[in-house]
Design brief:
Belongs to the glycosyl hydrolase 9 (cellulase E) family. It catalyses: Endohydrolysis of (1->4)-beta-D-glucosidic linkages in cellulose, lichenin and cereal beta-D-glucans. The protein is 50% helix and 3% strand. It is mainly α. α3 packs parallel to α6, α8 runs antiparallel to α9 and α11 runs parallel beside α16. The longest helix is centred in the first third of the chain and has 24 residues. The protein is globular, with a radius of gyration of 22 Å.
Length: 425
């Protein structure tokens, strides 16, 4: 009888895991980016509750800066998170392109990348001049307006020799370089254009390691590898340091390290209260990609508390994906629109106000707060595929529009999840 009970329990666990529809989650994750689009929307737009917006961006400086993405629940275009998002979307395609192709999502994934890279090309108006923000965070956050109604300040901000910004320049270079790899073999001319812009953006002073790594992979240029090798913090070679740091991170994730990352009682790795899942999804892409390289090398990671093999990294990743998609103490999916129980009030201006296609009358700044932000009801538009900030350290989640620390979704949350879901779908 005991053996039968154990067998039934095992079968129940496996059936629960198998019941998670990774393919639908993958489709939704890419669809999410269409809900974040700024500019003139294409005829094949699938998130039909959205309309054209911010069509005069860049007019203050005489440059066409339309397009790109709103990064979260607001209506500002911040290029730093947009570039990081584009880099991780591209990495998802670079590592898991065959899986995306097999699930008929490669075209949608490339379209999501290109919506970002086309915008970065517009922003890169001269070899040493890059526009990096459109809009003003203070005035935008003081209003609750759907993008189609925006009347807040839309100033354009740039970096150049007199206004340095090596972090955003390097992230943009990384995005363009990574995207060029994603498009190689699919659109050679566009891939070449992206490399050209990546090289120029990457010449900003104080180029960072992340950009150099992607530029080396995209171009094979030895100078970028030399740059990586020179950036060391001890007598140990830089490349060895990078690997040791990565190995240590993996050990701590799977609880075999010397400084293990905290977990909630329900088993989710825990980082901090504000938008915790952005760190989790990024970590999962790194873990899954590294497991592929370890498998190819038939290698493991030597951890303080035992070796970690690729299959253990995959098992860990799947456990975290399943938690995000509903296998957690609240039985809630933290991907909006996925499953039967998911956040209904994500902190998002466009989703929380009726679509302009259904209600074309302008909804002003304060009317948005009075009539919609404070309304205790589900958002009228489902922001399909969005991953909210997620639960707290005790697996609790407050589904409230005003709870931006937990209920706001961002493009950086979802981008790395695309590749992870492609692997499991």
């Amino acid at each position: 009888m005991k053996l039968l009970c154990i067998l039934l329990l095992v079968l129940h666990v496996h059936s629960s895991i198998a019941a998670i529809d990774y393919k639908t989650a993958l489709t939704n994750s890419i669809l999410y980016f269409e809900g974040q689009r700024s500019g003139k929307l294409p005829s094949n737009q699938r998130a039909t509750w959205r309309g054209d917006s911010a069509l005069k961006d860049g007019s203050d400086v005489g440059v066409d800066l339309t397009g790109g993405y709103y990064d979260a629940g607001d209506n500002v275009k911040f290029n730093f998170p947009m570039a990081f998002t584009t880099t991780l979307l591209s990495w998802s395609v670079v590592e898991f392109g065959p899986e995306l192709t097999a699930k008929n999502e490669i075209g949608n994934a490339l379209a999501a990348i290109r919506w970002g890279t086309d915008y970065f090309i517009k922003c890169h108006v001269a070899p040493n001049t890059l526009y990096v923000e459109v809009g003003d965070g203070d005035s935008d956050h003081a209003c609750w307006e759907r993008p189609e109604d925006m009347d807040t300040a839309r100033g354009s901000y740039k970096i150049d020799a007199s206004h340095p910004g090596s972090d955003v320049a390097a992230e943009t270079a990384a995005a363009l370089a990574a995207a060029s790899i994603a498009f190689q073999g699919r659109d050679a001319r566009y891939a070449s254009l992206l490399v050209t812009h990546a090289r120029q953006v990457g010449t900003f002073q104080d180029e960072l390691v992340w950009a150099a790594a992607w530029l080396h992979r995209a171009t094979g240029d030895q100078s970028y590898l030399d740059y990586l090798s020179r950036n060391k913090v001890s007598d140990t070679g830089a490349l060895v340091q990078y690997k040791n740091g990565l190995d240590g991170f993996m050990c701590n994730l799977v609880q075999k390290g010397s400084n293990n990352i905290a977990r909630t009682p329900g088993g989710m790795v825990w980082w901090k209260m504000d938008n915790d899942l952005q760190y989790t999804t990024s970590a999962l892409l790194v873990v899954l990609a590294y497991s592929e390289y370890l498998s190819a090398a038939k290698s493991s990671i030597p951890c303080p508390n035992g070796a970690v093999w690729p299959n253990e990294l995959i098992t860990f990743t799947r456990s975290q994906v399943d938690y995000i998609l509903g296998s957690n103490p609240k039985k809630m999916s933290y991907m909006v629109g996925f499953g039967s129980n998911y956040p209904l009030q994500p902190h998002h201006r466009g989703a929380s106000i009726p679509s302009i296609r259904r209600d074309p009358a302008k909804i002003s700044c304060q009317a948005g707060f009075n009539d919609w932000f404070n309304k205790k009801a589900p958002n009228p538009n489902v922001l399909t595929g969005a991953i909210v900030g997620g639960p707290d350290g005790n697996d609790a989640y407050d589904d409230s529009r005003g709870n931006f620390r937990q209920a706001e979704a961002a493009t950086a949350n979802v981008a790395p999840f695309v590749g992870v879901l492609a692997k499991f779908a």
